[in-house]
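Listing S7. Sequence submitted for prediction.
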Amino acid sequence: MSNLKVWLDGKLVNHEDATVPISTHSLQYGTGIFEGIRAYSTSKGTAIFRLQDHTERFFNSARIYRMKIPFAPKEISDAIVETVKVNSLGDCYIRPFAFYANYSELLRPKTPKISTYIWAFPFGAYFEGVLKGIKCRTSSWQRISSRMLPVQAKASGNYLNSIVGINEARDSGFDDAIFTSMNGFVAEGSGENIFIIKNGEIITPGKDSDILLGITRESIITMARDMGFHVTERFVHREELYTADEIFFSGTAAEVTPIINVDNVPVGNGNVGDVTKSIANAFSDIVRGKNGNYDKWLHYVA
């Protein structure tokens, strides 16, 4: 990482020079908001996937937490492109992050100072052996709800909930956790949305299940319907995980990740299913610029 440049408050600096004091408010209290964005190598150069949608959600998260980012959305999206370009990146992960930079022991600084940085680095598959599918455990921890924290904000502190779940899952021999919501229905993974497939129908929890409305999730719903699949957003009972024909995660990092086992119960026949394969292949073609019908989702780095 030492040779990478990051964008910090309007300037490109060396990664190792982008530091903050240990007394920084966000380090003490987890008061940061962020985005996870991917870019991909294509025949036309590097393409950032759904840049404007990610930028919009970034500012929505800031608004929910009353953080006034001292840059306009276009300045941030331009800075994302600049950071990818200056580092000559192809397949990569991009992390815009805004945080309280005050040195303060107070929960709310008297005069909030918001800093923003953008970090981009080479990135491949999130899960090892993803093509073979992963094993998940239904977490004993429930997903936070909007009655506790704003789940539609992509905020640092929210992910402590994810960390206790994934720690439990990994320590039990699984790859990731599946959380249920406070009302007992299936919500999402530690950092992914979830889809189940039954009798050819694709089903995913809706926003009333206290999920983050993932941009990859919305992309998959759109493209799956374009492919002729029937997609339903509804409450999903936990037991449906055990009777589903196929299950997969979606997310910026996870992309389309097949799940072949839940709580030591094989999903379907225990192998990656045909519908999941077709969705994964179609998604890969889109993000790599091989399907012109979705070029509007790609921002090419000139």
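Caption to Listing S7: primary sequence and predicted structure tokens for the chain studied. The two ends are 23 Å apart (CA to CA). The first strand starts at residue 5 and ends at 8.
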